[in-house]
Design goal:
heterodimer, A: 477 residues, mainly alpha, two-stranded antiparallel sheet, 19 helices, 4 strands, 2% strand, B: 500 residues, 21 helices, 76% helix, 3% strand
């Protein structure tokens, strides 16, 4: 058992990120402001390296006496998460520079948040899970309030913190109940002990706590405010990497810890999923701020992902990975496009500002349209395959009403997605946007190509579909 | 299997052309600024016409490679894709005839835009070519998911065509078109996923032989009809059509009436009958009732229209009622008639929208009241208009007659009352079409602006004359089409009988 190489390889991505973060702190202390710009490259490289480390040990393993266990399911999420976090970091630099808030702490916070994501994905024990969640959350609160001179940003950070602390409390309380009734904090131990009535209470509280982290209704209220108030690149990060990680963790906890209680949590998750879809898509209809709109849209999309979770491990695991990957990539691209909305007076966020984009910036308009159609789930773009997989999982598990709700919510959400398309293509042009950073534009194009075309071609046995199936099979081990 | 992938080439040729146009445009965007762009616009349009003409040639090649005497799907191409989904293309007589209608109408549509589209021509051409790929794809796909992708993806370019190049209320019309169609298709998607799970395959040939339990069939049938009824469109979900038609540019209306509506009929023949035979039989009276209501009611509505395009749009709904009637007669003559009616209506309604487009380009109004006495200024135009009016009414010798009479005979064999109701619709169609013709073409010229209106120009001749020729040709020699669709009709009906 004491195979030190195996243990090190299992925790290598997190060890590396912790190390990189500390080195970053040191470099910051030594070089001060001269490190500001460099820290972004440093952080992105560290994150890509972490993704590579996770990919190297894709099969996973166990470490620290069962506190940490990885398998293909979580490693799949890890690789995607770290890459997205790295890209989110790269596109932040220009924005922060223009707002004169560029500081190396930003990159370090993203690294630490990613460390938290790595830990929760690897967690095989309630303690590890909680530690990871707090690492992620505390970094996120600070990131949301990163523009500390802006009232909106500070408000977003404070709101996020107060509500997040409440959710963490519930999660911790639930975890303690589960521990109390099963006598162990290890995932495997709890699963073995079986879910008694007392532990069920704990489970419900844990679901509530985790639902807050993934912004599922009815624990979603913070999302639009934080998305609107926090600096745009921070939101681009929130909406992609942590979203993917926490959704997968949500599923991981339910599948591996409470797998035997599926009859009990299936109904809870179904209700959360249904509420999220409807609240998200109806809420977005009336928004005029694009970040708020995308915030509501993310609530709806979490609802779709939860349909795959509700379908259970057997049917839903692969579908969840496929859906979340496509969603996270598309989401990052969308927020990168929001970053491109810049005029002389600074950033603009009203959806009407996109007027006539097709004529002013045709490349941005085409790629943004692909992203919007993809997130709306229209074929032939990637989002369709995500939604198709979710529907397949839902129907396979016999959740017919939920599948119908997915359809209804998709139609409602088309109302605002089409509105964006209409503004870009049908309306008269408004003033041109300023030149877009090459990294931002590159990300928009890259994400739209990935979401629009690559998924269509490669969602085969060899591509994501096959990988997701393979990765999901890792849960069984 | 094996051999030259003619269907893939035909399907993706327009898409490749669209990409080419996009790249060429992007490469020359910098240099052509400032100079007169009228010429480059014509060049783009011409390139698109050539690409779509090449697609037509490809479809003709497919026609010659197709063995009309054999049953089943031919020219099949199949590659494993993802799980139970495969990339599978193939045609039978039914789909090949609709593919040829598509490839025939698209170059005409692009050519018809020669004078009427003058803004954002590159985008227009790209949207049209992409749309063509999706339309052909719908007819050649032999896999549920692939079919759905093409079926639904076609909404995007059509949405843009109506929304960007449409009339005054184009945004409303485009949204209505999109959302109506989407609700129906998403219900169909759920049914499709269910079918894939139940049968373990998305392959049409497997699903046709798979016997779904009768009570399940009912639900699946309803979900599929939800989509096809909107697309066809059937009363009472037809209301998006007049709006979309009125607001769409001429070429958009032609393609909408000519091809997109046919997807509904195609879907009924491809899915509802062979895959859910019990449910189809159960719902026969229901479908007949809807068909008769569509024929009678929308004919009356058409009569009261003051807008020429709206009148023809309502007339389309009525004519699609005949298609429903023929399909759900479940007999050889009715189904043959329905297919024929679809093709014939594609030609005639397409031509009628072009006819309206001709005067709209000159006068910029579609109000019937603004016209009158056109015969004295535009004699050739009046003759063509007369031909298509008569074809739409169903005059013997035109293709319109064959489709209507066959569907009615088929309907008569299945349910006398339905055929009787449909016959009433034929009378009404004469009423509204002749009224339209009289008020626009005959009489005194009341509108002084009409005094110096010009007759059809060369481009309009090229667009309309082939449609006129085919309308008469198929009216005199309908066997040209029946020979092609015979074996697939027999096959659909035998699959249906096998299931019951």
């Amino acid at each position: 058992m004491l195979d030190i190489t195996s243990i090190l390889m299992t925790v290598a991505p997190e060890l590396w990120l912790a190390l990189a973060g500390l080195i970053g702190v040191l470099l910051g202390a030594i070089f001060g402001e001269r490190f500001n710009s460099l820290s972004f490259k440093f952080g992105a490289l560290a994150l890509f390296a972490a993704a590579a480390l996770a990919a190297l040990h894709f099969g996973g393993g166990e470490a620290f006496g069962g506190l940490v266990r990885t398998n293909t399911f979580v490693n799949f999420a890890k690789v995607i998460t770290f890459v997205l976090a790295g890209v989110a970091l790269i596109i932040s630099e220009g924005f922060l520079k223009r707002h004169e808030t560029i500081r190396y702490e930003y990159a370090l916070l993203i690294i630490f948040a990613s460390l938290g994501m790595g830990i929760i994905l690897s967690a095989a024990d309630l303690m590890t899970l909680y530690m990871g969640i707090e690492t992620l959350s505390l970094s996120s609160y600070v990131l949301a309030a990163f523009h500390r001179d802006s009232a909106r940003s500070s408000e977003a950070g404070l709101k996020y913190f107060v509500l997040g602390a409440l959710a963490s409390g519930m999660l911790l309380y639930g975890a303690s109940l589960v521990y109390g009734f099963t006598g162990t904090t290890s995932f495997a131990g709890i699963a073995e002990a079986g879910v008694t009535t007392g532990a069920l209470f704990g489970m419900v509280l844990m679901i509530v706590g985790l639902a807050f982290k993934i912004s599922a209704a009815p624990m979603h209220v913070w999302t639009p405010d934080v998305y609107e108030g926090a600096p745009t690149p921070v939101v681009a990060f929130f909406a992609s990497a942590p979203k993917m990680a926490s959704t997968v963790v949500f599923a991981n906890v339910l599948f591996t810890v409470f797998g035997s209680a599926i009859d009990q949590w299936q109904i809870i998750v179904s209700i959360i999923a249904g509420l999220s879809m409807i609240i998200g898509s109806v809420g977005a209809l009336v928004q005029t701020n694009i970040k708020r709109l995308l915030g509501y849209s993310s609530i709806a999309n979490v609802g779709y992902a939860l349909v795959a979770v509700a379908a259970g491990q057997e049917f839903g695991a692969a579908a969840l990975l496929t859906f979340s990957t496509i969603y996270a990539v598309t989401s990052l691209g969308l927020f990168a496009a929001v970053l491109a909305m810049r005029r002389r007076g600074g950033m603009v966020e009203g959806i009407s500002e996109l007027g006539g984009l097709a004529r002013n910036k045709p490349v941005l308009a085409v790629t943004l349209s692909v992203l919007i159609f993809s997130i709306a789930g229209l074929p032939p773009f990637g989002g369709f395959f995500g939604k198709f997989e979710v529907l397949r999982a839902g129907l396979e598990a016999g959740l017919v009403p939920l599948a119908i709700l997915v359809v209804i919510s998709s139609v409602i959400s088309l109302g605002y997605y089409l509105k964006l398309i209409k503004i870009m293509w049908f309306d008269e042009p408004t003033e041109r946007f300023e030149r877009v950073d090459i990294s931002v534009m590159g990300t928009v194009v890259l994400c739209s190509v990935v979401a629009g075309v690559v998924f269509m071609v490669f969602i085969s046995e060899l591509g994501t579909g096959g990988w997701a199936t393979f990765a999901a099979a890792g849960l069984l081990r | 299997m094996g051999g030259f992938p003619i269907l893939s080439v035909m399907t993706f040729l327009p898409l490749a052309g669209a990409l080419l146009v996009m790249l060429v445009r992007a490469a020359t965007a910098g240099s052509s600024k400032g100079e007169s762009t009228a010429q480059s616009k014509k060049a783009v349009l011409l390139a698109a016409v050539i690409i779509s003409a090449a697609t037509f040639v490809a479809s003709v090649a497919a026609f010659f490679a197709f063995d009309r005497s054999a049953t089943g799907y031919q020219l099949v191409e199949q590659y494993a894709w993802y799980g139970p989904i495969s990339y599978k293309l193939g045609v039978d007589g039914l789909s090949l005839s609709l593919v040829m209608l598509t490839t025939f109408l698209t170059p005409i549509c692009l050519l018809a835009s020669w004078n009427s589209i003058d803004k954002r021509v590159t985008e227009y051409v790209i949207a049209f070519l992409v749309l063509e790929t999706f339309m052909i794809g719908v007819f050649v796909a032999l896999d549920l998911v692939l079919f759905y992708i093409f079926f639904e993806a076609g909404l995007i370019p059509m949405f843009l065509i109506v929304g960007i190049w449409g009339g005054k209320d184009r945004v409303y019309a485009a949204f209505k078109f999109f959302l109506y169609t989407l609700i129906g298709s998403l219900l169909m998607l759920i049914a499709m996923v269910y079918m894939i799970l139940a049968a373990g395959s998305a392959d049409f040939e497997v699903l046709e032989k798979f016997a779904f339990a009768p009570e399940i069939q009912t639900w699946l049938w309803l979900a599929f009809i939800a989509s096809f009824a909107v697309k066809l469109p059937m009363w009472p979900v037809h209301t998006w059509l007049p709006d979309a038609h009125v607001q769409a540019p001429t070429a958009g209306s032609v393609i909408l009436a000519g091809v997109l509506l046919k997807m509904g009929g195609y879907g009924m023949l491809r899915f509802s009958l062979p895959m859910f035979p019990d449910a189809s039989a159960m719902f026969q009276p229901f479908m007949f009732a809807l068909a008769v209501i569509a024929i009678v009611y929308t004919s009356l509505v058409a009569w009261r229209q003051t807008d020429m395009k709206k009148l023809i749009a309502y007339s389309s709904v009525a004519h699609m009622g005949f298609v429903t009637l023929g399909i759900f007669a479940f007999n050889e003559i009715g189904v043959q008639g329905a297919i024929f009616q679809m093709l014939s209506h594609g030609l005639i309604s397409g031509a009628l929208f072009l006819i309206v487009g001709v005067v709209y380009d000159r006068m910029h109004t579609r109000e019937i009241a603004a016209y009158g006495g056109l015969v004295s200024r535009m004699p050739i135009y009046a003759s063509f208009f007369m031909l298509f009016t008569m074809a739409n009414v169903g005059l013997p010798g035109t293709s319109g007659f064959v489709g209507e009479i066959l569907t009615m005979v088929g309907g008569f064999q299945a349910a006398t009352w339905a055929a009787a109701g449909a016959a009433l619709g034929v009378i009404f169609s004469a009423v509204y079409m002749l009224t339209l013709y009289r008020r626009t073409v005959f009489g005194e010229i009341t509108n002084p602006e009409l005094n110096d209106i010009k007759d059809m120009n060369l481009v309009e001749w090229i667009c309309i004359a082939p449609l006129a020729a085919l309308t008469i040709l198929f009216g005199i020699a309908p066997n040209l089409i029946f020979n092609l669709t015979d074996s697939s009709t027999t096959r659909i009906l035998s699959l249906m009988a096998g299931g019951q």
